[in-house]
Amino acid sequence: MKGPTSMKRLATAAAGMMLVLALLPGCAGSTPAAATTAAATTASATPSPEAPVVKTTIRIASLKGPTTMGLVKLTSDAEAGQGKQDYEATMYGTPDEVVPLLMKGDVDVALLPANLAGVLYNKLKATPDAAIQVAAINTLGMLEVLESGDTVTTIADLKGKTVYSTGKGASPEYVLDYLLKENGLDPATDVTVEFKSEATEVAAVLASTPGAIGVLPQPYVTVLKTKSPTIRTALTLTDEWAKVTTDSQMVTGVVVVRRAFAEANPDAFADFLADYQASTEFTNSSPAEAAALIAEVGIVPSAPIAEAAIPACNITYIDGAELKTTLGGYLQVLFGADPASVGGSLPGDDFYFGS
């Protein structure tokens, strides 16, 4: 992806009006007191101009994929001046582009892979200006194993194979490793995983290499299968996760906020969360309208493909106690498989916004 895609929205300000009162010469029999009373009555009947609404600028970093698919209504409304606050959203191709911005305080809110939020919490918790909290889950499981062939029907069938994937150091890598281990395979010796920097690179390999196997998230799965009908979904990793653990759900993406920003702007951040929740609900409930916005910002090539992909993207909004239970259970599983996957230790209660 060639650089971030800007979706900055401009706030509008109302202009004040000046009221000019002219005193006309009185006719016979009128008095200065009467003129003064008339002028006062006129002035009191004229409403005072309203003060302009001052909005807080919230800088948002999102990733090209389902997290931004759930954000498009918010940014569209902001462009039309209908956002509760001034939202400036930029879409990036990889998490590596977003992390330095959080660390430098150049963004206030970021939509990131779930495990990466845990890593950043551990890395930044001692840095007041950069420390983060997770405020919501925005996507559940959406990873699939694709094959341009018909040799894979179980996780065990991946033994001896090369698998192309995105997400090194993020959810795709750790979910795949966990599932391989739970199915009796050693990720280091039984399967060769070749990581690509972006999903489009994996899609290109699958489209051009007979027999290739890859792990892709939605909506790239739908895009690829539309262009290359011979490619099939061999496994849905959400289903495979459910087969080996009943105590947690697979979580893909979350919303994080810099703690310093949330503490300094509690009302503005609450407005953002309300607008973002409404945006995710719009994407799920009005897929045809959302698909047009999704195609417009360049996440997928066309609105029909976006509309077809939305049901499989597991776009959601989960906060509060359910956030802590669902995300905490997921991170616990990853931590048990590999502590490095969540930054070396499980996040404390202060990781969860509102706790």
At a glance:
The chain is an alpha/beta fold. The protein is built from 14 helices and 12 strands. Strand 7 (162-165), helix 6 (171-182) and strand 8 (192-195) form a beta-alpha-beta unit.
Explain this structure.
The chain has 355 residues and is an alpha/beta fold. Helices cover 41% and strands 19% of the residues. The chain contains 14 helices and twelve strands. Strands 1-3-2-4-11-5-12 form a seven-stranded mixed beta sheet, sandwiched between helices.
- Count of alpha and pi helical runs: 14
Name the quaternary structure.
Answer: single chain
Radius of gyration: 26 Å
Based on helices, strands and strand pairing, what is the structural class?
Answer: alpha/beta
Helix-strand layout with pairing:
Elements: E1 5-8, H1 32-45, E2 57-63, H2 66-69, H3 72-79, E3 86-92, H4 95-104, E4 109-113, H5 114-124, E5 132-140, E6 143-147, E7 162-165, H6 171-182, E8 192-195, H7 199-208, E9 213-217, H8 220-227, E10 232-236, H9 237-244, E11 251-258, H10 259-264, H11 266-285, H12 287-296, H13 303-309, E12 315-318, H14 320-337
Parallel strand pairs: 2-3, 2-4, 7-8, 7-9
Antiparallel strand pairs: 1-3, 4-11, 5-11, 5-12, 6-9, 6-10
Helix pairs in contact: 6-9, 7-8, 8-13, 11-12, 12-13
